[in-house]
Amino acid sequence: MIKPRTTPGVMELLPRDQIAFQRMLDVIRRNYERFGFLPVETPVFELSEVLLTKTGGETERQVYFVQSTGALEQGGQPELALRFDLTVPLARYVAEHEHDLAFPFRRYQIQRVYRGERAQRGRFREFYQCDIDVIGKDALSVRHDAEMPAVIHAVFSELEVGPFTIQLNNRKLLRGFFEGVGIADGERQALVLREIDKIDKRGAEAVRATLVGADFGLADDVVDRIMAFVQVRSTSHADALAQLEALGAGSEVLEQGRSELREVLELLKGYGVPEKNYALNFSIARGLDYYTGTVYETTLDEHPQIGSVCSGGRYENLASHYTKSKLPGVGISIGATRLFWQLREAGIVSTAESSVQALVGLMDDARLPDSLDIARRLRAAGINAEVQLEVKKLAKQFQYADRAGIRFVLLYGEDEAARNVVKVKDMASQDQYELGREELASVLKVELEQLRAMGKR
Amino acid sequence: MIKPRTTPGVMELLPRDQIAFQRMLDVIRRNYERFGFLPVETPVFELSEVLLTKTGGETERQVYFVQSTGALEQGGQPELALRFDLTVPLARYVAEHEHDLAFPFRRYQIQRVYRGERAQRGRFREFYQCDIDVIGKDALSVRHDAEMPAVIHAVFSELEVGPFTIQLNNRKLLRGFFEGVGIADGERQALVLREIDKIDKRGAEAVRATLVGADFGLADDVVDRIMAFVQVRSTSHADALAQLEALGAGSEVLEQGRSELREVLELLKGYGVPEKNYALNFSIARGLDYYTGTVYETTLDEHPQIGSVCSGGRYENLASHYTKSKLPGVGISIGATRLFWQLREAGIVSTAESSVQALVGLMDDARLPDSLDIARRLRAAGINAEVQLEVKKLAKQFQYADRAGIRFVLLYGEDEAARNVVKVKDMASQDQYELGREELASVLKVELEQLRAMGKR
Question: What residue intervals traverse the membrane (chains A, B) (predicted)?
Answer without folding.
Answer: none
